[in-house]
C-alpha cells in the first residue's frame, strides 16, 4: 500500500535544494573548472553567496512546512507505521525502497525539519572567511538533511543502512573542509569510527537477510523489511551476535562511553552549525536505531545485554558530566555534556518501561533543540570574540543582556530545570529506570548535580563578574542581531513550550513506544502497594 | 479528610499563579521598554494574588471544617502510561497559610523594594525575578502532587539563584548564587528519588493516593521516603549538613534576603515535612532524624549568629537557627506540626521585618554592613529602630510578642515528647533561646546604641585578614545616616505589627490549631501559655540579654574585631562548614575532574590512537597491494563482509 509520497517528498525537497545550490554559479563567468581567482568583484561573490544562502533557507523552510502538514496527516492512534510507501528496489535480494513513520520517527523528522532553518540562519556568515565555495557548505547541509530524513523514515533495513552510511559523507566534508583547528584529523577520526561501526552493522544486516530467507515467517524469501523481520525467530546466540553488530554501530554514533572519543574532537573542529546537526540530529540515529532495530529485531539479546548497557549508560551520564566540568573550551564542554545526555537516552531505552522509552524519545527531540540553541549561541559568541576558550570571556551579561538571557534559558534546560523541556524527558527516564533498576537510577540522578555544576560554572565564567577589557572592547554594543534572534528564539520558545505542555508530543510518542514494548513482550512493573484513593474529584 | 473539587470562586484559583507569571513574563521578555513602569506592574501582580488569596481564604472559612480541602485540576502535564503528572491546585488550610504569607509578606517586600532599588538601573529585572519567585513559591505550596511541587521547588531555587546573583557584575554574588543552587541540587536529588520511590511503590505521586497508602507500604518504605524528603528539606531550608549556602546568599539585595532567604523559600523544607505528615507519622526513625537535624541546626545557626559582624550574616545565622526550631517541631509529629507552622508564620513577620530594618540601615549608611561601623543609629533612623526593636522582642520570645507564644510551644512540645530524646531536644531548644537572646541583643546594641563609630576614620585595611570578618574599609567621606523613605518604612511598620501580634493571634484559643487540624491532626494534649520549660527558656533569654549588655553595651565596641577565643574564631568561620565542604567535597571533586579529563585525553583517546598508529605502521607493508582505487576498496570491503557472514553461517550460531 502506497500513500501519497509524503516522506519521499520531505526527503526530496532538501536534495533538490542542494542540486539547485550547486547550480548557482560561484564565479563571475559560468565556466566550469575555472581556477583563476579574483576574476569577479568581491561584491559579486558576496551577492552570489547570499543568493545561495537564501535558496538554502527557502528550501529548508519549504521542508519544514511540508513536514508540519505531513504531521497533521499522522494519526497517533492509528496503525504503527503510517505514510508508508513500498517499492521493490533490488528484487534479487529482496531490497525495497520502503519508508514509513511511527510516532518516534515522526517526532525526530520534525526535529530535523525545525533545526535545519535555524542552523542555516545561524551559519550565515560562518564560512565566508574561509575562501571556499560557500554554497557547497549549505548544499552539504541540505544533503545531510535528506539522509537523516531517509534514515528515520526507512522501514527496510538495507535502505536504512544505505542512508546510515551515506549520511557520513556530507558530515565528513563539512568538518574536513569547512571546519576549524585540527579539522582534518577530527574528520578522519570521525569517519573511521563511523565506518568501523557501519561495517559491523553491514555484517549483521546481511546475516539478517540470510536468516530471513531460512525462516518460515517470510515464506523462505529473504527480506529486509522490518515489519517482516520482526516475525523472524532467531536463536538466542544468533541474536546476541547480530545485536552486537547493530549495537556497536549505534553506540559509536550515539555516542556511548567508551566509544565516544571521536565526538569531542569532531565537535571542537566543526563549525557551530555543523556541530548542531551532528550532535542534534545525526547522533540521534544511534539511539533511534537502538529502539527500532536493537530492541525489536533481537528482543532476547536486548534482555541479555540490558545490565551491561545500563552500566555503560550510567557511566556515560556521570563520566560525560565530570569531564565536561573540567573543560576549558566552550565547544568541547557542550560536546561532553551531550555524552552525558546520550547516557540518559540509552538508559531510558534499555530500562524497557513506558516511561523510560517515552522519556528517551522525548529526550532525543529536546536534546536537539537545547544543544542546538546552546551551540548556536556559543557560535555567535565565538564569531564576535574569535575564541572558544572559556577564560577569554567574562561579564558578557552586562553588555549583551539579550544574548545572556537566551543563553541562560538554554543552559537551564541543559540542567533540567522544570518548566523547560529537558526536565520532562529526564525525569521520565529516571522514573522509568528506577521502576526496574533502583541503584543505576540513583547513580544517574546524581547527574543532576553535576549538570548544575557544568552549566552554572560555565555561565558564571563567561557571563558574570566584571567585564575584562578585551571582552568589553569586542562585544560592547554587539548584542544579537535580527538574523541571530530569528535562528535561536524559536528554539528557546519550543524549549519552554515543550517543558510546560509536552502532552501533544508525548501523545504521538506513547503509542509507538507501547507497541515497541509489546513487540518484545515486556510490561511495566506493577507498583508494590497500589494507591487506593484518588486525589480528589477530577472535573 | 477527603478532597473535594473546587467550586465557586475557588475555581478561579489558577489566578493565584497567573498574576505573578504574567508579571514575570512581561518584565523579563519586555526588557527595557518596561523600565518605567515595571516595578509598578510587579507590585500590582503580587497584590492581585494577595487579594485573591484573601477571597479564597474567607471562602474556605465559609465551608465546614471537613470540606476545606479543594482541588482544581488545571491540565495534564506529563502523561505516560501509569505515570500521570498533572498540574493541579490544592486549596486547603495548610496551603492557605502559605499563600497568605507569600503574597502578603511578598507584596510588602515588593513595595519596600520600589524604594530600596530606586537607584538601580536594573530595577525592572529585579521585579521580574521577584514575580517569578512568587509564582514558583505559590506553585510549590499549592501543587496537589509531588512532581508539580518539585517544579515549584526548583523554580524557587532558580529565582533564588537569579536574585542572589542579581548584582552579577560583581565578583562575589555570582559565586554565591551558584553555590546556593548546587547545594540545593544535592537536596533535590533526595526529593527526586523520593518521587521515583513513591511511583514505584504506590504507582502515584499525588498527595491523596500517596498519603492513603503510605501506611500499607510498611515502615521501611516510609522511613526511606522520610529520609529522602528530609534531604530535600535540608537543602532548601539550609539545615545541617547543607547549611553553608545561606550565609553566602546574603550577597543578594536585602529585600531578597528578607523574602526568599528568611520569610518564605527557606521555610519550604518545613512545609514539605508538614505536608508529608502521613509519611512521617508512620516512621519514628525519620521523625527522629528530622528532630536531630533541627536541634543541631538551631544551635549551629545561633552560634554562628553570635560571631558575625556583618548584620545580614548575623541575621542569616539566626534564620538557620529559627528554621531549626521549626524542623524540630515538625519532627515531633502531630504534637509539633501546628507550632512549626505557627513559628514559621510568626518568623515570616519578624524576620522579614528585621531584614528590612537591616536594609533600611544599609540604605542610610551607603551599603555598610559591618556593625562595628554602626552605633547610635536609633537617633538617626527612629522608625527603623522601633520596628526593628519590636522584631527583636518577638524573636527573643519576650511576652507577649510573637516568638514567646510560638517558640515556647515548640520547647514545650519537645519537653512533652518525654524520654531521653525529649529531654535532649528540649535542652537544645532552651539553650538556643538563650543564645538567640544574646546574639540579637548584640545586633541591637552594636547597631542602635553606644557611640557612633561611622564617623571615625577607618583603619587601614589588611590588619588581620584571617578573622573571616569584613574589615572596616576607610570611607572616602563622612557618612550621613538618614531615615528611609515612606515607601520603605510603611512595610516595616506592617511587619512590626505582625511581629507583635501574630503569635498571640495564632496560638491563643488554638486558632491555628483548629484551622490546621483537618490536615495535620491535633496535638495529644493541650498546653498552657505558661509552662516550666517556657519559663526556663525565658530566664535564659534574659540572661543572654544581660550577657550581651555586659559585653557590648556597658563597654564600647571596638571598631576592629578582637582576635577572640578559639570558639569565636570557629563561629566566625561558620563552624568550618565551608572548610569541611572544601576539603571533603570540592578538592576531591576537582581532582576527580582533572583526573577524568586527563584520562579521557590520554587514556581512552590515547589507546585508540595507539591502535591506529600500530595499524598505520603495519599498513606500510600492505601498501604494495593497495591500488588506490575506490572500486577495489569497496570490493575488498564487500569480500570481507561476505567472508564474515559465511563464517557466521558455517559455525551455525
Short description, anyone?
The complex is a heterodimer of chains A (539) and B (653). Chain A is mainly alpha-helical.
List the defining traits of the structure above.
heterodimer, A: 539 residues, mainly alpha, 70% helix, globular, B: 653 residues, three-stranded mixed sheet, 24 helices, 3% strand
List the helices and strands and how they pair.
The complex is a heterodimer of chains A (539) and B (653).
Chain A: H1 6-23, H2 42-72, E1 82-90, E2 95-101, H3 103-122, H4 134-153, H5 157-166, H6 168-176, H7 183-214, H8 226-229, H9 236-253, H10 262-269, H11 272-282, H12 284-297, H13 299-325, H14 330-350, H15 354-385, H16 396-399, H17 401-414, H18 421-434, H19 438-463, H20 469-475, H21 482-500, H22 503-519
Antiparallel strand pairs in A: 1-2
Chain B: E1 4-5, H1 14-30, H2 38-62, E2 70-80, E3 83-91, H3 93-116, H4 123-142, H5 146-164, H6 172-202, H7 207-213, H8 218-236, H9 245-248, H10 254-263, H11 268-275, H12 277-281, H13 284-307, H14 311-330, H15 334-364, H16 382-395, H17 402-417, H18 419-448, H19 486-507, H20 511-520, H21 532-553, H22 566-572, H23 577-622, H24 630-650
Parallel strand pairs in B: 1-2
Antiparallel strand pairs in B: 2-3
Helix pairs in contact in B: 1-2, 1-4, 2-3, 2-4, 3-4, 3-10, 3-15, 3-19, 4-5, 5-6, 5-10, 6-8, 8-11, 8-13, 10-15, 11-14, 13-14, 13-18, 13-22, 14-15, 14-17, 14-18, 15-16, 15-17, 15-19, 15-20, 16-18, 16-19, 17-18, 17-19, 17-21, 18-21
